[in-house]
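Co-fold these.
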Amino acid sequence: MDLSERKLKILQAIVSDFITTSEPVGSRTLSKRPDIDLSPATIRNEMSDLEEMGYLTHPHTSAGRVPSDKAYRLYVDQLMKSDDIPAENKKEIVERLGSDAQELDETVEHAAKLLSEMTNLVSFAITPNRSESKINYINFLPVDESTVVLMIVCEDGKVTNSAIKMNAPYTEDNLTLMSKVMTHNFKGKAVSTLLTENIAQTFETDMKSLQSLSGSVVPSFMKTLEKMLNVDLYMDGYSNIFRLPEYNDVAKAKNFLETVTNKDEFTNVLVNRDKGLMITIGDENSEDLKDCALITADYKVNGKLVGRLGVIGPKRMKYGEVTSVIKYITDNLSKTFEIEAPKEDADNNE
Amino acid sequence: MDLSERKLKILQAIVSDFITTSEPVGSRTLSKRPDIDLSPATIRNEMSDLEEMGYLTHPHTSAGRVPSDKAYRLYVDQLMKSDDIPAENKKEIVERLGSDAQELDETVEHAAKLLSEMTNLVSFAITPNRSESKINYINFLPVDESTVVLMIVCEDGKVTNSAIKMNAPYTEDNLTLMSKVMTHNFKGKAVSTLLTENIAQTFETDMKSLQSLSGSVVPSFMKTLEKMLNVDLYMDGYSNIFRLPEYNDVAKAKNFLETVTNKDEFTNVLVNRDKGLMITIGDENSEDLKDCALITADYKVNGKLVGRLGVIGPKRMKYGEVTSVIKYITDNLSKTFEIEAPKEDADNNE
DNA sequence: TGTTAGCACTCGGTGCGCAAGAGTGCTAAC
DNA sequence: GTTAGCACTCTTGCGCACCGAGTGCTAACA
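Predicted complex below.
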């Protein structure tokens, strides 16, 4: 049995109906739709077929039909139409993500917020991974007699710094020398490359006189490099889930919030997804998220670095609307970060 | 009518019973307690008095008594005993907040996490306010032909940096001069003082030749100063609220999460609280939080700067246990940040 | 042969009444 | 001042009947 035109039409009607109402869809309801001109009985026959084919299920005998994961997949791939974004939303996105002197972190956080507001879902965004960013220069700066700040500037303008507790006394000249030698040795290399390099070696060959500082500096340096690889995760709209009937059950809400607030694991999920506009539904996700749908898309920074942004919610999601908004936001982010090239900001050290 | 010894004892029993069970406490239950040797009838009379005095309420005629906000206040002030922390928890706190080369931000975030784990409540922590931190030096660093990184280092080791988009061409010498002049002019001044100062003036009097850069630099400089005043808020344990019967009602859970995830407002609440170990209960809080209790305590950085950490939960809270844990954690934080003085870290700029 | 009307059947949800249980307040006795 | 006893109140849980939505099947229709 294959999917006739009519079956597709019915399936589409069921999915989109269920998406808006979250109630199992019955044959009578369907037959009342203007775009479907069939009697309930005919529809029942078709639905029965669709169920046999794995597109629909039945919560219990006397309930209507509910789409299966397979149906959502089909819907997303073939049946849904991507919706237009209301002009005022477009305007708001453009305005609020505009290029006006914002920092990358801030803008990305903002984008996540905007996204959750416009979709009424839980949104998230991660900042780009810097593993392939190249070092521009390295600087050691004095703070007090036992503390030095290490600052690493990437070619893309990203500045990372951290404090180093010195176990041996140092002079400003020492710091200048270290800065020079390390910049000379490492400039132009990618962070990921540097991580595999033997930094201590540099002290032995090029800064023999500063061997005493190597013990304090090298571990901190490595740690800072690792820190540069961290992607930040922003989330927003947690409380939106309470609008959804599927989370009226407190236990479900709890599970959802637990998996989603587990920053490390969730970041992992996001980082490891495929590139581009990705929609994963139900069992296409990991066990924890098997009742959810995730939509993500990428934004670019400087046309190269890639960050990611999206939403998570029930499978019953307005895929058309949501994907449109996500795409619009990521496109705008890319535009913002393209013109204003180096726009992120360093934070705080102590 | 005043509070006899016996009334206090009964009140204490009611409060602590209600805190553990969350069920209204009846006279019979109370009379069974080994520490109360009175008949249910006697207890009923006392309870009736206590109700008249405003310490107890009645959900309905045939239910037991529930403590009022006034009762919680009395309990916290006079009746509760502060509990010991299990040795293993102490050990864990010491280990996980230990001085081992962590950044301030990270450690504070960690502390919040620890706190929520140990109390099963929603925890939060804010980083110190830097308004009185003094400038150590100011540095402008080249990134590319139109981008410069501004870096401000405080005496306490805090580094803040941000990218500046230059509207006019610059040379490295320009940057060096700016760095020197501004450091000379502003070193030792507090951030809050600097915010009121006319920076543009500095260009006119001391860097006439660099007037063309002033337009790009001054606004960014001011923005960066403002950024230095931001306190970061970390929260953890959102999903803990689902363990509490008071949030079995989805609407209540929603309200709670909404107020608590409103970062800006909630940060405000925290920043504006009184210093030291603070417990606010029910209507002592703002309208939004009138069903909650907040406990906060301060930690010190360098013995001066003050950050804050605490929990929020239902008024029915194990005050003794929770305050002990909070105090233990803040004490440990203060110790960590005292020894390791400058330990925060700068983040990223682009 | 495909479509439709009709009908028996299923099953979750709602409302109602009833009994049980917990707790109170009051009175009277100790 | 304390306590036992009792009538009263109110919530909670349970069983039960009923309703309605929806199905599947059969038989008739075009």
